[in-house]
Write a structure and sequence with these properties.
Layout: H1 2-5, H2 7-11, E1 20-21, E2 25-28, E3 41-50, E4 59-74, E5 78-86, E6 88-93, E7 96-101, E8 104-108, E9 113-117, E10 124-131, E11 144-147, E12 155-156, E13 159-166, E14 176-183, E15 199-205, E16 207-212, E17 215-220, E18 224-227, E19 233-238, E20 243-250
Antiparallel strand pairs: 1-2, 2-18, 3-4, 4-9, 4-10, 5-8, 5-10, 6-7, 6-9, 8-11, 12-13, 13-14, 14-20, 15-18, 15-20, 16-17, 16-19
This protein binds (2S)-amino(carbamoylamino)ethanoic acid and manganese (II) ion.
């Protein structure tokens, strides 16, 4: 009786996914991940979720540690931001040492050697990379360690259902921001945003519906989104727990190269 003994095999349709990749936005659901090898990042699974090949000007990866995982390298043109989604690792950046746990992060400016070791198996690490654009009159930012749990979470635009945590300093030396946005169920962006800045994000918790350039997408924990500059964007949280995403944004530079 194949319909009863192998019922689940008949029900799984492998040609279905919520992933879409369009000119000005993408939803990347984990069901389609294919692993990359990144030189210096050993004993781990690396999923390059966003990069230039997609049309983006940032790179976002997700690293999942196996036993004896190490991430060893040096930043050259791109600065690097690591965030521990879950787990534990020891980080050494230009001689500064810190143990990073869930919710901790480290910003690695250009021109620094970094090493993450003693990484607990199963640890998940998010990385954002952006080519650094130096601003005349400002020094390159320093290495910065932090813990999202210690970052204030004020209401966003006076809406108590929305909280915005800004992880990097409000300082023109930085040309990228990384923020954590929390929406209570039913909370939503107050308007459709359309802006020059680009975003990469991953959901840490919850679910909801994202509107991107007039397309509507159900999204949830584990999903990532790329939004190109000027991609109209709006989100509402659904379900029984707050929806939380951590996102990248380019900031603080001249609006034209001419
Ligand atoms: O900072 C932002 O632009 C943010 N409000 N955008 C977003 O969450 N899609
Ligand atoms: Mn935005």
């Amino acid at each position: 009786m194949p319909f009863t003994t192998h019922y689940h095999l008949f029900m799984e349709i492998s040609a279905l996914t919520r992933t879409v990749v369009k000119r000005n936005h993408a939803i990347i659901a984990p069901d389609g991940y294919i692993n990359s090898h990144v030189p210096g990042w050993t004993n781990c699974t690396v999923n390059v979720i966003i990069n230039e090949a997609m049309g983006a000007q940032l790179c976002q990866t997700l690293i999942t540690a196996n036993k004896d995982c190490k991430l060893v390298g040096a930043t050259i043109d791109s600065q690097l931001f690591f965030y521990i989604i879950k787990g534990k690792a020891k980080a050494i950046v230009s001689g500064e040492i810190k143990v990073l746990q869930t919710g901790h992060f480290v910003y690695v400016p250009v021109g620094k050697a970094y090493r993450l070791e003693n990484i607990k198996e199963g640890t998940q690490i998010l990385s954002f990379h952006k080519v650094y654009e130096k601003l005349e009159g400002h020094d390159i930012p320093e290495i910065l360690f932090g813990d999202a749990a210690n970052v204030p979470a004020p209401s966003y635009l006076d809406d108590k259902a929305l909280r915005l945590q800004v992880l990097l300093p409000d300082d023109e030396a930085f040309d990228m921001a990384v923020n954590i946005f929390t929406y209570d169920p039913g909370g939503h962006l107050p308007m459709v945003e359309t802006h020059i800045m680009e975003h990469g994000l991953i959901y840490l918790q919850g679910q909801g519906v994202y509107m991107l350039d007039q397309h509507w997408y159900p999204v949830k924990k584990g999903d990532s989104i790329w939004m190109a500059p000027y991609c109209p964007q709006w989100f509402t949280a659904m379900g029984k727990e707050p929806a939380v995403y951590i996102y990248y944004k380019n900031v603080n530079r001249f609006p034209t190269v001419k």
